[in-house]
Amino acid sequence: METNHISLFPDEHFLDIRPYQYGWEECKPLHSFGPFVRNHYLLHYIISGRGMLYSHSTNGKIHEYNLAANQAFLICPGQVNMYTADEKEPWKYVWIEFDGIHAEECLLHAGLEWDQPIYLPQSIEHGERLRDRMLYFYENSAKSPIHLIGQLYLFLDELIEFSSSRQNFAEKGQKDFYINEAVVYIQQNYNRKLTIDEVADFCKLNRNHFSRKFKKVMGCSPQEFLIHQRLTNATELMRFTDLPIKIIADQCGYPNQLYFSQAFKKCYGLSPQEWRKQNCSKPER
Question: pTM above the 0.85 mark?
Fold first, then answer.
């Protein structure tokens, strides 16, 4: 019988790194999840059993990965994926969903990215330590948010240290400092009327110069990042609250509900109401 245990992180006021959900699952044979798109990074560590991951690469092709105990697999924000437990040896895994300004950088250090989603620890012992670190979140979910944030930093440090494909990178330059400041500013102000000119002024950079630097570092324009931030937070509210769509739109920087619905459907391919029916964890009001 399938067993699923989940806990939610209780505080949203951490931007550098923060968890969203964590738990573990013992799947029944051929149990599958997806196709689905996540808003944050999601890492599964396989405790026992086997399964398959079907993951879309950046060129649109679907890659299949046959996975077993002591391996982990990463799902990136915006990536279409599906994973299925083996028929004879269904897997049991522990997982954590997280994000933040430095999340991608930490994962790259560990040798993980969109087109390289499979993680192999240097030894079984290292894998077991990662497993225990991940289980700690669920087993201690009543601890303070700061305590759990500290555990996430320790987990990411060990994820990098124990990786069999660890990468080393040079320290970031001053240009990335300005972009990090911009990211924090957007994440703190996305829920009101915010312009890219205002963000550039905050960073004391020319608008065009700022936009070029932002896209080079983040891989998207400031406006695209702002929209993504607003819509990502909208999906979190739709999944875990029963607030009306109009209120959610307003809280995410869209006082015009029609404009919000158009932007949402363009991004997710569904109206907010349709998306909520398929993904909500609470009944729709």
Answer: no
Question: In the numeric block, which tokens belong to residue 81?
Answer: 């994926």
Residue 280 near residue 239, CB atoms below 8 Å: yes
Distance CA 78, CA 37 (A): 5
Answer yes or no: are the C-beta atoms of 137 and 22 closer than 8 Å: yes
Q: How far apart (Å, rounded) are the C-alpha atoms in residues 280 and 273?
A: 10
Could you count the other beta carbons within 10 Å of the beta carbon of residue 244?
12
Q: Is 1 in contact with 28 (CB distance < 8 Å)?
A: yes
Which of 83, 86, 84, 70 is closest to 38 using CA atoms? 83
Q: For the chain, list the domains and their CATH numbers.
A: 3-161 (2.60.120.280), 174-279 (1.10.10.60)
- Per-residue pLDDT tens for 211-264? 888 887 777 889 988 988 888 888 888 877 889 999 999 999 998 999 999 999
Say which residue the tokens 């009101």 belong to. 192
Give the separation between CA 160 and CA 19, rounded to whole angstroms.
Answer: 17
Residues in the chain: 285
The CA-CA-CA angle for residues 68, 72, 76, to 5°, reads: 130
Spans in the chain with pLDDT lower than 70: 1-16, 168-177, 280-285
Q: Tens digits of per-residue pLDDT, 181-217?
A: 888 888 888 888 899 999 999 888 888 888 888 887 7
